[in-house]
Amino acid sequence: MPRRLAVALVAAAVGLGSASCASGSSDTPSATSSSSLTGDITVLAAASLTESFTTLGRHFEAAHPGVTVRFSFAASSALAQQITDGAPADVFASASATTMRDVVTAGEASDPVVFATNSMEIAVPPTNPAKVTGVHDLTSTAVTTALCQPQVPCGATAAAVFTNAGITVTPVTLEPDVRSVLSKVELGEVDAGVVYVTDVLAAGEKVRGVEIPDDVNASTDYPIAPLAHSTHAEAASAFVDYVLSADGARVLSAAGFRQPGA
Amino acid sequence: MQTLSSRERERRATSGGGSRSAPVPLLVPAIVGMLFLVVPLLGLVFRAPWGQAWTILHGSAAGEALRLSLWTSTTATAISLVVGVPLAWVLARTHFPGLRLVRALVTLPLVLPPVVGGVALLLAFGRSGFVGQYLDQWFGITLPFTPAAVVIAETFVAMPFLIVTVEGALRSADQGFEEAAATLGAGRMTVFRRVTVPLVAPSLVAGAVLCWARALGEFGATITFAGSYPGRTQTMPIAVYYALETDPDAAILLSLVLLLVSVVVLVALRDRWLRGAV
Amino acid sequence: MTAGLVARAEVTRGAFTLHADLRVAPGEVVAVLGPNGAGKSTLLSAVAGLTPVSAGQILLDGDVLDDASTGAFLDAAHRPVGFVFQSYRLFPHLSVRENVAFSPRARGSSRADARSAADDWLARLGLTELAARRPGDLSGGQAQRVALARALAGGPSLLLLDEPLSALDAGSRLDVQTELKKHLSGFAGACLVVTHDPLEALLLADRLVVLEHGRVVQEGTPAQVARRPATEYVAKLVGLNLYTGTVDGSQVALDGGGTFVVPNHGEHGDVLVALRPSAVVVSPHRPDVSSARNTWSATIVGLTMLTDRVRLDLVGKPSALVDVTPAAVAELGLAPGGEVWLSAKATELEVYGQVPGSRS
């Protein structure tokens, strides 16, 4: 039994090795493809882009059968850290200009382009147990609130909202990314969470949104850039172009993002 | 033909046995294994900003996080001892239908991803969890996002280490001593207190140390069930994780502090207790 | 009320059933002798309350300890019984004094009272100097005395000893045996010793109970049992040849073949015949036949050196164990396969019918 297991492990390791070799060579012929692009690309994207980018990835793959798009969704700040630590990836889509700037400064990317903006909304459980009607309700100690960590874009943007409104909010927890905030709201463990408009939309019936008026709301820019150490630069640029295309804009708008300058 | 130094001759003559040097096929992987475990720790030591250590540790929330980590993991260990040792006894010494299932369930957190444990805790003891909602309705107690939740998450993940260690010791312990105690007039509780527990004491300490170390390093279940807020629920591992994004120097120092605490405890106890553990 | 221990019970452990039937009077030392697997430990375990009986009852000084018919059962902890285990089972984490104080303390004495009771027993057994030691630092004989002190300190009215000397090396055995004999005779309660060593049983006990295959096969004083063994096992233990046969006047027809001439007591019926190995004479040729002697031929199948004799294992009608001097072995050229003549005086044969206490 152990021997068989060992054989299986070795086989798996060899398989992995040859797979990565194959994907490493970008000149692999692709007979069925109408596009000349090939290879696997890894896109590191802000957690708030989970649904819209997954859709975009599917569309992109349909247009370029030789390309496989893999995503890693997390807090933009965490992804930026991974990139500067040398994570192998091809494209970075951030939920904040600041984290993108860190990556550019580190020489890992250049010429980022803003492809969307997002603003904040209060997510409450469907029953809205604390009867939250606006940001000022979040100052009450009776209302338990979840926020993102301040260094995470959604945390920083939420902080900007509170500054605009001239209030101080003491959360019960500072979550690692916006999706953790949302899931705490979905589970009913907190009365409110400050998340992106797009998250409320994506969550559907599981949460209810309480709008933040435009005069106090803050928004964050979503810049995207191919990464300097990409091994599939062509496919990476193509993906970025696709996100910036009309098709990309349509998918993002449907998810609740706004176009820059809109 | 080999040559033996006089020192080696003396050693073999006095303490007996053959050569004490390891054969190469064992030695090489052994060194590789050791380096693999030690090199990352050296990485922390080399990269640490020793010059600013004091200011960083003093200025950041590190002190708070360390204090929180120490008292929550100690409390988790205490709870594990109070509840886990009797449970280990029941698992080792009694027979009832479903015992095997109970044993499997009790040790499940050992293999369960801690985040899953955290989600499970939320669903049970969360504000709208099937136990938690009554705690909230009847007693006005909400556990998530409190230090109590940190203790609960740590206990959930760490207690099985204690249970498994102590149960094994109880199983292999000579029950003849307990019989002897019974014939000397000791009731079952007296036997447990004065004979059973002292006899498995080395394993009990070893289990408690493992439990404490596991609780100290707990991350996934804690951040899921207790969230993270500095000074209240942000333990050292969570502080390290966040600091890594914003302040890598602080992260390294925090890691070193955690490492130092663990090493001191393990070195102090390993030789004395783990070796003697039954 | 019957004072002392009365056990008439069956104890079932898996496929094995012990049929216990014995009494031990206060002040009496009874040794239960039997081979491994005879049920000796099961007997002690049942009397101590570590194993419940499956039928019958166990009484001590008229009080029910265990009764399968009524379901009454007194916990081991509540029986006035002291148990000296085979390997002593001294608590390794407690000092000698704490070990001895354990029982008084567990039975409700204050810490100080338990301690002084312990010191008292340590003094009586000459252990005062060892009071602070751990059991791991004791010699076998010392540990044995500590175990005895610990069992006695609880003030039992019944003392149980399981193979009390088997954990000792041959050298210290004799001293400890003498010592133990002294302490046991000073004990006012009933005392039950279990052993597979006949010498131990003979020296320590006032009365022997022989247990085989879960049943009592013989009971009696050491002298009775040694002279008239009821079974092959007992005969072997006491070093006798034992034959079963049918007597008719001066003739015993042996079940295994052969005939013995015995003193005529006008008896008829089934008997046992015991013969000491040293009472048999070995000669290379057929000796002169006398009516008072039994003479038969046999083949040597084995020789074993004993301390000052050689034991011959002979096959014939009947087969026998015979002791000769080493000189005789040399002079007669005795070797395996050799053919010799055996003779034994009729008066050397111990012929007896029903063995007292035998229930086989």
What does this structure look like?
- The complex is a heterotrimer of chains A (262), B (278) and C (360).
- Chain A has helices at residues 2-24, 50-63, 76-84, 97-105, 153-165, 178-186, 197-203, 233-244, 246-254; strands at residues 39-46, 67-74, 91-93, 113-124, 145-148, 173-175, 192-196, 208-211, 219-226.
- With 262 residues, chain A is of the alpha/beta class.
- Chain A starts with a helix and ends in an 8-residue tail after the last helix.
- Chain A folds into two domains: 3-116 and 221-254, 3-Layer(aba) Sandwich (D-Maltodextrin-Binding Protein, domain 2); 118-219, D-Maltodextrin-Binding Protein, domain 2 (3-Layer(aba) Sandwich).
- In chain A, 40% of the residues lie in helices and 21% in strands.
- Chain B is mostly helical and 278 residues long.
- Chain B is 76% helix and 0% strand.
- In chain C, the strands form four sheets. Chain C has a six-stranded mixed beta sheet, with helices on both faces.
- In chain C, helix 2 packs across helix 3, helix 3 (111-124) packs across helix 4 and helix 4 runs parallel beside helix 5.
- The radius of gyration of chain C is 24 Å and the shape is elongated.
- Chains in contact: A-B, B-C.
Topology (elements, then pairings):
The complex is a heterotrimer of chains A (262), B (278) and C (360).
Chain A: H1 2-24, E1 39-46, H2 50-63, E2 67-74, H3 76-84, E3 91-93, H4 97-105, E4 113-124, E5 145-148, H5 153-165, E6 173-175, H6 178-186, E7 192-196, H7 197-203, E8 208-211, E9 219-226, H8 233-244, H9 246-254
Parallel strand pairs in A: 1-2, 1-3, 5-6, 5-7
Antiparallel strand pairs in A: 3-9, 4-7, 4-8, 4-9
Helix pairs in contact in A: 2-9, 3-4
Chain B: H1 6-15, H2 24-47, H3 53-59, H4 62-93, H5 99-111, H6 114-125, H7 132-139, H8 147-172, H9 176-183, H10 188-199, H11 201-216, H12 220-225, H13 236-246, H14 248-274
Helix pairs in contact in B: 2-14, 4-8, 4-11, 5-8, 6-8, 8-11, 9-10, 11-14, 13-14
Chain C: E1 5-13, E2 16-24, E3 29-33, H1 40-48, E4 55-60, E5 63-67, E6 81-84, H2 96-106, H3 111-124, H4 140-153, E7 158-162, H5 170-185, E8 190-195, H6 198-204, E9 207-212, E10 215-220, H7 222-227, H8 232-237, E11 241-248, E12 251-254, E13 259-261, E14 268-275, E15 281-283, E16 293-305, E17 310-316, E18 320-324, H9 326-332, E19 339-345, E20 350-352
Parallel strand pairs in C: 3-8, 3-9, 6-7, 7-8
Antiparallel strand pairs in C: 1-2, 1-4, 4-5, 9-10, 11-12, 11-14, 12-13, 14-20, 15-19, 16-17, 16-19, 17-18
Helix pairs in contact in C: 2-3, 2-4, 3-4, 4-5
